Amino acid sequence: MNLLAAKTWSVALLCLLVVACGGSGSIQRTDSTPAESAASYNLQLGVAYMQQGNLALAQEKLERSLQQNPRDPGVHSALALLSEKLGRSAEADRYFRSARRLAPADPDIGNNYAVYLCRTRRVDEGVERFIEVARNPLYRSPEAAYTNAGVCLRGDGRIDDAAGYFARALAIRPDHAEATFQLGDLDLERGLLVEGRLLVDRFLAANNATPDLLLLGARLARAQGDRLAEERYGRRLRLEFPDAAQLRQLPGAASRNKG
Predict the structure, then answer these.
(1) In the structure, what pLDDT confidence band is assigned to residue 8 with cuts at 50, 70 and 90?
(2) Cys bridge to 123: 40, 68, 156, 236, which one at CB 3.0-4.6 A?
(3) Among 27, 50, 186, 179, which residue's Cα sits nearest to residue 103?
(4) Domains in the chain, please, with CATH?
């Protein structure tokens, strides 16, 4: 998978941790039993330890949470992620499947599993799950699911199919920055420079800029030989996002830094 796809999956992983904390089992209900309350606390501790990289303590807390409330889908989702981090693929898949059995209508759990499937190169299964999530009336961001499906396909080299899903995401929400960036970057890769520039410029004219889109605009302009536009995008990136990592990727950044 290319660096762009890796970037997107890292964001999805962060979402997985948030869902694991905020799933149905971790919400403190007034009618919770003592065991459920303890399970919720241990789930939150386990996720926090996992975020810190302390996998041994994370495993201890999550396994304790599972014993206290084995029907909490959030615990199963968190254990799936931990198992993947520990290199236990079969175990991770089993936990994801059990989370889905416990909460079949939960789109966040479906999205988490789709991310896992794509990351483990089970692309067709992952895309199928993303489509399922996008069509779930409980899911508030179908454009995100279609964008993820496109990233999954792009990582597998299925460029035209990926572009179709990015376009579908933008048809739902034209101001979706990630889908705009993904499709514009794909246009640059395919040599569709005019289309890519129009896509970026249309977004920037109506929405707040992002570092990724300003960098992409500069790259597209350079590919077109439009140095004035390239400098314009670069100037905006430097002024609006002076600490952005994307500054180091601007065309000519290395020579400018030396100067």
Answers:
(1) very low
(2) 156
(3) 27
(4) 1-132 (1.25.40.10), 174-253 (1.25.40.10)
